Amino acid sequence: MENRAFYIDYHKCVGCGTCEMVCSLVHEQACSPELSRIRVVRYRKKAYNVPITCAFCEKPPCVDICPVGAVKKGDSGDVYVQSEMCIGCHQCSLACPFGHMNFNFNKGVAFKCDRCGGDPQCVKFCWTGAIQYIFPQVGLDFKRTAFSDQIVRELKE
C-alpha cells in the first residue's frame, strides 16, 4: 500500500455524516454511524465537527495490548483486526489514545478503519473536502501554510 495518510481539515467539516453513512454501508451493508469506521465528533454549540478515524500508529498500542493477537500490524503499516480471533475484551478500544478503535456490540468484536484497501470511500464521498487521503508530506505542507497564513494575518493587524 502506498504511504498515504488521512488528512482531516476540521474547518471544512459540516458534520453531515456522509462519511459515516458511506463507511457503514460499504463495510456493514447498513447506514449506521455506530458501525462506521470513521466517526464525527460534533460540538453543536460551537459548530465544530471533527472526523476521527484510525491514525495507523507506527507503534500501535491496540496491537500491543490485545491478549489474543487479534489486532495486528501488517508489513505495509496497516493495523487490522482479525475478527474471528477477537474475544471482545475491549482492551484495544481502551488502549487507543485517540478513540479510533470501535466495537460492534451485535457481533461482539472490535473493528477499525481499513482504508478501504487503499481507496477510502469516506474521502470519495466527502463533498466538502474535509477528509483527504494524501502523502504525509503534503499534509505537513498544508499545516505549514495554514500556520504561516495565521502569522501574516496577525502581522497585518
Descriptive overview:
With 157 residues, the protein is of the alpha+beta class. The protein has five helices and eight strands, in the order E-H-E-E-H-E-E-H-E-E-H-E-H. The strands form four sheets. Strands 1-8 form a two-stranded antiparallel sheet. It is globular. The mean pLDDT is 93.
Summarize the structure.
With 157 residues, this protein is α+β, with helices and mostly antiparallel strands. It has helices at residues 18-28, 61-65, 91-95, 121-125, 136-156, and strands at residues 5-8, 39-43, 48-52, 71-73, 79-81, 102-104, 109-111, 131-134.
Percent of sequence in beta strands: 15-25%
The N- and C-terminal alpha carbons lie at a distance of: 46 Å
Strand/helix succession? EHEEHEEHEEHEH
Question: Widest sheet: strand order?
Answer: 1-8
Q: What percent of the residues sit in helical stretches (DSSP H or I)?
A: 25-40%
**Over the alpha carbons, how many angstroms does the gyration radius reach?**
17 Å
Total count of strands: 8
Mean pLDDT: 93
Keyword list:
single chain, 157 residues, alpha+beta, two-stranded antiparallel sheet, 5 helices, 19% strand, globular
